[in-house]
């Protein structure tokens, strides 16, 4: 089983190194790292560490990533394209954040061996709650102020005004709107389709979209991939406390409990200390 790991990160080069070490890479595995363009020091540190690694590639022209902006999606697509530009042979590609942990690499790969080329993608159609993200313009997400109170207030006001005057984008019909977590594990068959079909026109339809990374792959899969080829559980454990837009940090005990869950191989998110503790636990078993 050849797995390509796509790691999207912006801080803590030591934690990224720990994560990569924990993946127990074989000669058939590959890693692509996108480091936020706002973190040049982290990029230099990782380039120094992996300058001689033939199966680890660091994206040379990264984007500045902003929460809920189109830049999140652009970073993911840059990593996916890097696999093809470097002619990497893989069976599955797995998108990870720099604060993820793969709980059991061997079991993860074994599971994928019997997955019959299905892709694992959080996928649902709560259109009534989220159609505004797609068919209204949001001009305040893809910048460094996107998480500030002022930017959020301006965003909410702009969306409300568009509803009031009946302004609606013509990029997608309501029945085409799907959503889910951005984190995925895609089969080579489906990654090929995404790579071949996604062009500037497709990306343009998602520009000025709120949280486009939580809709892009779901909506394209709904159009291009048969439903029976998609598993709607993305093999991950993520805990969002009630009312929070970001997941909580998991403890070592959390990880030990999660690893016992069926078909749950990746946990998000963890600190560097917890990741180190977990790696030590696994080495002692």
From TrEMBL:
<dbReference type="GO" id="GO:0030158">
    <property type="term" value="F:protein xylosyltransferase activity"/>
</dbReference>
<keyword id="KW-0333">Golgi apparatus</keyword>
<keyword id="KW-0808">Transferase</keyword>
<keyword id="KW-0735">Signal-anchor</keyword>
<dbReference type="GO" id="GO:0046872">
    <property type="term" value="F:metal ion binding"/>
</dbReference>
<keyword id="KW-0472">Membrane</keyword>
<keyword id="KW-0479">Metal-binding</keyword>
<dbReference type="InterPro" id="IPR043538">
    <property type="entry name" value="XYLT"/>
</dbReference>
<dbReference type="InterPro" id="IPR003406">
    <property type="entry name" value="Glyco_trans_14"/>
</dbReference>
<keyword id="KW-0812">Transmembrane</keyword>
<keyword id="KW-0328">Glycosyltransferase</keyword>
<dbReference type="GO" id="GO:0016020">
    <property type="term" value="C:membrane"/>
</dbReference>
<keyword id="KW-0325">Glycoprotein</keyword>
<protein>
    <recommendedName>
        <fullName>Peptide O-xylosyltransferase</fullName>
    </recommendedName>
</protein>
<keyword id="KW-0256">Endoplasmic reticulum</keyword>
<dbReference type="GO" id="GO:0015012">
    <property type="term" value="P:heparan sulfate proteoglycan biosynthetic process"/>
</dbReference>
<keyword id="KW-1133">Transmembrane helix</keyword>
<dbReference type="Pfam" id="PF02485">
    <property type="entry name" value="Branch"/>
</dbReference>
<keyword id="KW-1015">Disulfide bond</keyword>
<dbReference type="GO" id="GO:0050650">
    <property type="term" value="P:chondroitin sulfate proteoglycan biosynthetic process"/>
</dbReference>
């Amino acid at each position: 089983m050849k797995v390509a790991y796509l790691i999207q990160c912006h801080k803590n080069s030591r934690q990224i190194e720990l994560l990569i070490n924990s993946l127990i890479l074989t000669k058939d595995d590959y890693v692509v790292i996108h480091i936020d363009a706002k973190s040049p020091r982290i990029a230099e540190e990782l380039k120094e560490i992996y300058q001689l690694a033939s199966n680890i590639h660091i994206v040379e022209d990264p984007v500045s990533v902003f929460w809920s902006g189109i830049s999140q999606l652009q970073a993911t697509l840059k990593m996916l394209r890097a696999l093809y530009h470097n002619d990497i042979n893989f069976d599955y590609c797995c998108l990870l954040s720099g604060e993820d942990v793969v709980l059991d690499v061997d079991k993860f790969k074994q599971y994928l061996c019997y997955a019959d080329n299905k892709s694992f993608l959080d996928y649902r159609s709560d259109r009534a709650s989220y159609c505004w993200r797609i068919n209204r313009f949001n001009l305040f997400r893809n910048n460094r102020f996107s998480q500030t109170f002022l930017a959020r207030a301006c965003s909410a006001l702009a969306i409300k005004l568009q509803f009031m005057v009946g302004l609606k984008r013509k990029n997608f019909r309501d029945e085409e709107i799907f959503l889910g977590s951005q984190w995925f594990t895609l089969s080579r068959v489906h990654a090929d389709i995404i790579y071949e079909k996604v062009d500037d026109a497709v990306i343009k339809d998602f520009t000025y979209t709120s949280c486009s990374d939580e809709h892009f792959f779901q909506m394209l899969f709904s159009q291009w991939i048969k439903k029976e080829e998609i598993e709607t559980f993305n093999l991950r454990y993520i805990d969002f406390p009630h009312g929070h837009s970001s997941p909580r940090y998991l403890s070592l005990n959390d990880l030990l409990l999660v690893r016992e869950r069926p078909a749950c191989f990746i946990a998000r998110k963890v600190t560097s200390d917890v990741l180190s503790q977990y790696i030590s636990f696994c080495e002692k078993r």
